[in-house]
Design a protein that fits this description.
Helices cover 41% and strands 20% of the residues. It has 396 residues and is an alpha+beta fold. It binds a DNA duplex (18 and 18 nucleotides) through helix 3, helix 8, strand 9, strand 11 and strand 12.
Length: 396
DNA sequence: TCTGGGGTCCTAGGACCC
DNA sequence: TCTGGGGTCCTAGGACCC
C-alpha cells in the first residue's frame, strides 16, 4: 500500500512562540511583522540568531549568524531572548493536539514531526483537506502557523513542508518529484550541507535533478556509502518508518561558552562541577547509567576537540562522573585558553549491572546513591540552587 | 560585541585477538 | 631484509540536523 506521510513544521518556531506569548502579555507589536530575531545573550558571548522573522529574512538575516552580522544587514533589527521552557510547553501542546489524528507521530525536533496517515481511513481528497484543517486549527488554537508537507515517504513530506512559507500545505507525491524537486539547488536536499554541496557543485552537479540522474557509482567513488544515500534522496527514495516510540538517548551532553577565554584551572573545574551537577541530574531523571564520559572543548581560536574514557562499569552519581571528568581533563587539556567546555555521557544503559562480588565498593555506592537521590528530590522541589557542592560556595 | 547548544551517524586508524 | 587477514572494540574527528 502506498504510504501517506505528513511533515508538520512550525514557521520560525522560537520567534512565533515568543510573539504569541508577548501578545498575550499585552505587548502591542506582533514581532513576526517587524524585523526581529530571537538571539542569545551577547554579553555572555552567545549572540547568534536562533530564529528570524520573515521581515528580517528579507534583509538577508540567516540562522546561526552573529547578531553583529545580522544588525549590519538590518540596522533596525529587534532582538528578543529565547525562553526554552515556553518552547517546550508550546511544543508538547502542539504534539498532543496532532496525535488526535494519528497514533503514528514521530517527534523529529522541538518544532517538527512526521505523522503516518496511512490506513487512517481517510480518502485521498480527505487527507489533503485534513492537512489544511490541522494547519488552520493549530493557528486558531495556539496562534502560530505551521507548514505541512504531504508525501509518500518521510523525505518527500519533509522536502514539501519546506517549499513555500509560511502557513502553507504542499504535496510532493512520487509522481511530482521530477517537476517539484529536481529543479531545486542541491543545497535544498535534506542532509546535503555546506561541505557536500561544494563537492557536488565541483562535480558539475548543481540541482537535485543533476544528482538524481547521475550514475550512483560516481557518487560512491566520492562519498562512499553516503553517496548512495544522497542519490536515493535526490530520487525521492526513502523507506524509513515513522517511529512513534520515544527512542532512548544514545548520548547526553552539556556545554558552556565561557564568559571569557580561560586557562584558569580552578575556574574551569568549577564550571565542570556545575555541568556535572546538571548533566548528572538529567541522567538520573532518565533513569540511565553511563559508561563513557567525554570532555569537549573549543579553544580560543575555535578549534574543537574531545577526549573520552570508557569505564569498566556504568555509573550515575555526580561524584563518579566528576571523578572521571577530572581524570580526562588532566589528560586532554594542554592548558591552552578555552572558549567552550562541555561534558558528554555516552553508552547509556537502563540498569547498572551489579558486580557485588567483585567490588566491595558497591555497598558504599548504594549508600551514596541514596544520598544522591535525596539531593535530587530536594532540588526538584526547591530549585537546584538550594544545594551546591561546597567548592561552589562563595564563588562567582 | 564575531562565530550557541544538543543531538545522530559515519569513518579512519590503532589495539588486540585468533 | 619477511611483514597474513579477519573481526571487534575503542577513540577522535567531522558532517549534518534543528
Amino acid at each position: 500500500m502506498e504510504r501517506i506521510i505528513f511533515h508538520i513544521d512550525v514557521n520560525n518556531a522560537f520567534l512565533s512562540w515568543t510573539a504569541v506569548k508577548l501578545l498575550k502579555e499585552g505587548y502591542k507589536v506582533d514581532i513576526r511583522t517587524i524585523p526581529s530575531v530571537i538571539g542569545g545573550d551577547e554579553s555572555k558571548r552567545r549572540g547568534v540568531v536562533l530564529a528570524k522573522s520573515p521581515v528580517a529574512k528579507k534583509y538577508g538575516v540567516v540562522s546561526a549568524e552573529t547578531l553583529y552580522q545580522a544588525r549590519k544587514k538590518c540596522p533596525d533589527l529587534q532582538v528578543f531572548p529565547p525562553d526554552y521552557y515556553l518552547y517546550m510547553e508550546m511544543s508538547s501542546k502542539m504534539f498532543e493536539y496532532i496525535s488526535k489524528y494519528s497514533p503514528g507521530i514521530e517527534k523529529f525536533s522541538i518544532d517538527e514531526c512526521f505523522v503516518d496517515m496511512t490506513g487512517t481511513n481517510y480518502l485521498y481528497d480527505d487527507l489533503l483537506s485534513l492537512a489544511y484543517k490541522i494547519k488552520d486549527e493549530i493557528y486558531e488554537k495556539f496562534g502560530f502557523t505551521v507548514n505541512i508537507g504531504v508525501g509518500n515517504n518521510k523525505l518527500c513530506a519533509k522536502m514539501a513542508s519546506d517549499f513555500e512559507k509560511p502557513n502553507k500545505v504542499h504535496t510532493l507525491f512520487n509522481n511530482e518529484i521530477k517537476d517539484k524537486m529536481w529543479p531545486l539547488p542541491i543545497e535544498d536536499l535534506f542532509m546535503v550541507g555546506k561541505k557536500t554541496s561544494m563537492k557536488l557543485r565541483k562535480m558539475g552537479l548543481n540541482t537535485i535533478g543533476d544528482v538524481a540522474n547521475v550514475n550512483p557509482s560516481i557518487l560512491m567513488k566520492e562519498f562512499k556509502s553516503f553517496g548512495v544515500d544522497i542519490w536515493n534522496r535526490a530520487n525521492g527514495i526513502d523507506d524509513s518508518e515513522v517511529i512513534s516510540e520515544v527512542s532512548e538517548n544514545k548520548s547526553i551532553s552539556i556545554s558552556r561558552t565561557l564568559i571569557k577565554d580561560s586557562d584558569d584551572i580552578d575556574y574551569i573545574k568549577r564550571i565542570l562541577l556545575k555541568e556535572v551537577d546538571e548533566i548528572g541530574r538529567e541522567l538520573r531523571r532518565k533513569k540511565l547509567f553511563t559508561s563513557v564520559v567525554a570532555i569537549t572543548m573549543k579553544t580560543h581560536d575555535f578549534v574543537s576537540y574531545s577526549k573520552q574514557m570508557s569505564l569498566d562499569y556504568p555509573i550515575n552519581s555526580n561524584d563518579d562522573i566528576y571523578d572521571a571528568v577530572l581524570k580526562i581533563l588532566y589528560k586532554a587539556w594542554d592548558f591552552e585558553k578555552i572558549r567552550n567546555i562541555g561534558i558528554r555521557l555516552a553508552n547509556l544503559s537502563d540498569k547498572r549491572f551489579v558486580q557485588n562480588d567483585l567490588f566491595e565498593k558497591s555497598n558504599v555506592s548504594n549508600n551514596s546513591e541514596k544520598v544522591q537521590e535525596a539531593i535530587d528530590k530536594i532540588k526538584d522541589k526547591y530549585g537546584s540552587s538550594i544545594i551546591n557542592p561546597a567548592s561552589l560556595l562563595n564563588k562567582k
